[in-house]
Specification:
The chain is 14% helix and 56% strand. It contains one helix and ten strands, in the order αββββββββββ. It has one helix at 2-26; strands at 32-43, 46-56, 60-61, 69-79, 84-98, 107-113, 118-124, 130-139, 143-155, 168-181. Strands 1, 3, 4, 6, 7 and 9 form a six-stranded mixed β-sheet that branches. It has a four-stranded antiparallel β-sheet with strand order 2-10-5-8, with no helix packed on it. β6 and β7 (118-124) form a beta hairpin. The longest helix has 25 residues, at 2-26. The protein starts with a helix and ends with a strand. The relative contact order is 0.27.
């Protein structure tokens, strides 16, 4: 019995070290948060705000809200109803560099409406560059109260490629509101 324990204990120790080492090698983390806060007072027909983003070292997540890469977007103001019937607001991502391969479909974005508590838009970012419209909304109210969060994440509900280690996305996240003519 002692002879068997002498053989089993080292084997179990080696297996545990391999599991721990593999987990550390394939687990990434990071913190890339940005905010766009735009208070516009009386809306004069066009307003735009943007922030540079750089996403790297993301870990796969089971729920998009668990990612470390997100941006809160808050726009508030008043629409001049004498001139405009409302406003059209667009959240866009202009990607200048994206090293996530287009061979996969698990590098994604999600736009979440914090006011209503609902997911309003989502899609795949693998291999995409240039300007991508993430979400557009139209308001016919005399006041603009926009409160969204944009999440960028690796969907961990699928098996992920080991090619994602060291991959990056860079660009500009922007919000544009344009008055709707009467």
């Amino acid at each position: 019995m002692k002879k068997n324990m002498i053989i089993i204990v080292p084997i179990v120790a080696i297996v545990l070290l391999l599991i721990g080492g593999t987990y550390a090698w394939f687990t990434w983390s990071g913190s890339q948060n940005s905010n766009i806060v735009l208070t516009i007072g009386d809306f004069a027909g066009y307003v735009k705000s943007s922030t540079n983003i750089s996403v790297s070292n993301l870990a796969p997540v089971l729920d998009y809200k668990s990612t470390t890469a997100y941006s809160d977007i808050v726009i508030s103001g008043t629409v001049d109803t004498n001139i405009y019937s409302g406003a059209k607001t667009t959240i866009a991502l202009n990607i200048t560099s994206n090293t996530f391969s287009s061979s996969y479909n698990d590098f994604k974005y999600a736009v979440y409406n914090k006011t209503s508590g609902t997911l309003v838009s989502n899609g795949v970012l693998n291999g995409k560059t240039g300007s991508i419209e993430l979400y557009t909304t139209t308001s016919t109210s005399s006041s603009l109260n926009i409160n969204y969060t944009v999440y960028i994440y690796i969907d961990g509900t699928n098996s992920n490629s080991t090619d994602y280690m060291g991959k990056k996305l860079a660009g500009t996240l922007s919000v544009t509101s344009v008055g709707i003519s009467k």
